[in-house]
Write a structure and sequence with these properties.
four-stranded mixed beta sheet; 2 helices; alpha+beta; 10 strands; elongated
Length: 142
């Protein structure tokens, strides 16, 4: 059975999620899926938590994970293009596109945005010419 939850991030943007919980051997597996308009340019955010069988604790853990993730931004829009934020950390997912709008069959999903491989490579140009010991970027794909 799905539950719904509304969560507001630190920028006061509201998100609507459907939460699905399933019993597994070690506790409850819950996944929250952001509900967005069908024709949106954005990609639904997903959050997963594995917790003990205490449903109240599980819901609190999931809400905390969602809020923490929504409050983070990994991309900024500067100089007319997307750039990697000052934290120099990217967290996202790799998804299949079937070659739509890109030469590749995959795209990255970061901050709810679909990033083509070409856009990603363009963002990396700011790292060109830096000695590897002086500047790092962390890429975490989930």
């Amino acid at each position: 059975m799905a539950q719904t939850s509304n969560i507001t991030d630190k920028r006061q943007k509201k998100y609507h999620c459907k939460i699905f919980s399933f019993p597994v051997l070690s506790g409850l597996l819950s996944e929250a899926v952001e509900v967005i308009p069908e024709l949106s340019e954005r990609v639904s955010k997903r959050f997963t938590v594995l917790s003990d069988f205490d449903a109240d604790l599980e819901q609190a853990e999931l809400r905390l994970k969602i809020k923490k993730n929504l409050d983070q931004r990994h991309l900024t829009f500067e100089n007319g293009k997307l750039e990697i934020s000052q934290e120099e950390v990217l967290r996202g997912a790799i998804n299949y596109t079937g070659g739509k709008d890109t030469s590749f069959n995959i795209h990255l999903e970061i901050d709810g945005k679909m990033i083509t491989m070409e856009q990603f490579v363009e963002m990396l140009y700011t790292y060109e010419g830096f000695n590897s010991s002086s500047r790092y970027m962390t890429l975490q794909m989930i």
